[in-house]
Amino acid sequence: MADNTLESLFSRLGRFPDVESANLQAWDATDRLLLDTAVELRAAGGLPPGGRLAIVGDRYGALTLGALAQGAAGPGPVRVHQDLITGERALRNNAAALGVDGGFEQLPLGAGLLSGAGLVLLQLPRSLAELEEIADAIARHAAPDVVLLAGGRVKHMSLGMNAVLERHFGWVQPQHARQKSRVLLARGPRPADGPPPFPVTEANSELGLTVCARGAVFAGTGLDIGTRFLLEFLPRMPAARHAVDLGCGTGILAAMYARSNPGSRVTATDQSAAAVDSARATAEANGLTAQITVLQDDAMGLLPAGDADLILLNPPFHAGAAVHAGAGVKLIEAAGRVLAPGGELWTVFNSHLHYQPALQRLIGPTREVGRNPKFTVTASIRKSAEV
Ligand SMILES: C[S@@+](CC[C@H](N)C(=O)[O-])C[C@H]1O[C@@H](n2cnc3c(N)ncnc32)[C@H](O)[C@@H]1O
């Protein structure tokens, strides 16, 4: 495909419903390099004939829609896994905007996605644990002659990534870098014996809680230091009819709150599939499934306005690889919608992030309830009616 055709397709991609801003774009040079490398390999006879294409980690659809535009999808629909519900929705939005009707299937990481795959394109994840889970799944389920092309921005890649791939593939070869991106090519999958390694389960003795984590979830089975600080204020939080752990990760806040407030109904919600799987497993492991509902959603979009009287939030400070306060402000704005009048948002953040003006404006009167050398905890009360 001519360079400018793919460029013009990419230029029409949006990130919505993910945070959009002038310095954030919906594709990167790694998408381009992965697609070009696949075409070159196919032309050189380096791909198994008749193998299906699977894609893992497509951010907003550049890989899926690019492969379809190149006619490089192979037999059957392109099967694609994206951890974030915002990425899944963005792919569908972008397909509709480009007039692409079908041609791809969005699936969880596992056999349905990968069985019979002869080529896998992977946007390398940030964490080695997430890569471990993905590499294990590919080696377990894809065709024995599968070729994995795993690409990333050079500044985010580490030798640890090669080591993870070498545990699951007999042959791993870094390719030449181009425009600050690089592809690792892997062949010869070595399917692991025994059950899949994720979710990992660990007893946290400090909390007296069993924490379960899939590879992609924030903090793994660990306790984030901001979350630990917010938990110090658990005894001072109101007893809610309906409390929400917004951006729940492994669901530690939901589980700890549910345990100390047995009369409360709790929703744990996150945009990440790995997070909601983990939170569900954490609730199960601690006997809290009757009290905790787990929901994959973008910023509580599925919850009605005024539905909650308490929201707990340790906000994200990343939007993809970029540090961006917009992701946190989006969740504060969502909390303003979902809290009933008089309901409270309890949040913890790095003190230098100065979220108070946004909390004051989007929720209502905000008081500082705690501060340590690094973090601030605030409680904001949802103001009554709009004036
Ligand atoms: C800093 S982590 C906190 C995780 C967990 N609450 C804890 O304390 O360990 C922020 C979480 O927010 C989630 N998140 C980010 N943007 C979101 C959105 N738009 N909707 C739902 N969850 C989101 C991330 O996936 C991540 O799990």
UniProtKB/TrEMBL annotation:
Keyword set includes Membrane: no
PROSITE patterns hit by this protein: N6_MTASE
Matches recorded under Pfam families: MTS, RLMG_N
Record domain Methyltransferase small: where: 209-378
Entry EC no(s): 2.1.1.172
Keywords (A to Z) from UniProt: Cytoplasm, Methyltransferase, rRNA processing, Transferase
Gene3D superfamilies: Vaccinia Virus protein VP39
Residues of the RlmG N-terminal domain: 7-186
GO molecular function (one): 16S rRNA (guanine(1207)-N(2))-methyltransferase activity
Name of the protein described by the UniProt record: 16S rRNA (Guanine1207-N2)-methyltransferase
